[in-house]
Design brief:
Structural class: mainly alpha
InterPro entries: GntR_C (IPR011711), TF_FadR/GntR_C (IPR008920), Tscrpt_reg_HTH_GntR (IPR000524), WH-like_DNA-bd_sf (IPR036388), WH_DNA-bd_sf (IPR036390)
Domain HTH gntR-type: 23-93
Largest sheet: 2 strands, antiparallel
Radius of gyration: 24 Å
Number of helices: 11
Keywords: DNA-binding, Transcription, Transcription regulation
Protein name: FCD domain-containing protein
Helix content: 55-70%
Order of helices and strands: EEHHHEEHHHHHHHH
Distance between the termini: 53 Å
Pfam families: FCD, GntR
Strand order of the largest sheet: 1-2
């Protein structure tokens, strides 16, 4: 009888018949540097130590170290300047990297725009309730300033939709849940593109003006519910607002999938 836990070809051991891939040395080096970045041991804009110092620290060759750099550069955790005065500098992790990759995955899977809008509702509506429950006076000031800014831009469709989108992002940010904020950033990347496509298609049309005014009223109403700490009412209002926005945005039948929008 042959053991399923013995050595297997390809450089990986096996447990219960499942082959385990051994990480490459470059991946291990990248993991060590990544850990230092996310823990703040290497600050934004700080130059990494010289290649010779890192090669000695990790006991690796220059090609292996540079492969590790490419891994981190692909994750936007460092920027690398080539040449005699080149080197690697630390960049703060941003959700835009995850957002771009999520868009590619959703395109590949043929995900519908309705699917994305539904996900936004699942994320944003509870955030409105969380915001109403835990808001501060400073939160209210920021929300009211955002509403005032949008009102001043009502006659400028492009500027208004930008302010409109920023208000939605602000609601999630002020809710205070970092995980939901990152997830929202991934969805928002796609929703924002859909909003811009509608600005191009029907900016200034009677239907567009009505939709903008309905949305503006919903934003103002949400601020008042948040001020009064009406948690359930805030969540329900925001869910209704998001559904109305979805119905309006999905009227463009030429784009039904993420691939139609981003491809």
């Amino acid at each position: 009888m042959t053991s399923t836990t013995g050595r297997q070809g390809g450089g990986g051991g096996g447990v219960n018949g499942v082959k385990v891939r051994v990480p490459k040395m470059a991946e291990l080096v990248a993991a060590q540097l990544r850990r230092k970045i996310v823990r703040g041991e290497l600050a934004e804009g700080e130059a990494l130590p010289a290649e010779s110092a890192l090669m000695a620290e990790f006991a690796v060759s220059r090609p292996t170290l540079r492969e590790a750099f490419r891994v981190l550069e692909s994750e936007s955790l460092i920027s690398v300047r080539r040449g005699a005065r080149g080197g690697a500098r630390v960049q703060t992790p941003e959700g835009t990297v995850a957002a771009r990759y999520a868009g590619v995955v959703l395109e590949y899977r043929g995900t519908t725009l309705k699917d994305v809008y539904d996900a936004r509702t699942v994320i944003e509506a509870p955030c409105a309730g969380l915001l109403a429950e835990g808001r501060t006076d400073e939160d209210l000031e920021r929300l009211r300033a955002a509403v005032a800014e949008a009102e001043a831009l009502m006659d400028n469709p492009s500027a208004f939709i930008r302010a409109h989108m920023e208000f939605h992002a602000l609601v999630v940010e002020l809710a205070g849940n970092e995980t939901l904020s990152v997830l929202n950033g991934m969805v928002r990347h796609i929703i924002d593109q859909a909003n811009w496509s509608h600005v191009d298609l029907d900016a200034g049309s009677p239907e567009n003006v009505r939709a903008n005014r309905r949305g503006f009223r919903a934003h103002g109403a949400l601020v008042e519910l948040v001020a009064a700490r009406h948690t359930e009412a805030a969540e329900e209002l925001w869910r209704l607002h998001l559904q109305e926005a979805e119905d309006y945005l999905l009227q463009n039948r030429s784009m039904t999938t993420v691939l139609d929008l981003l491809g």
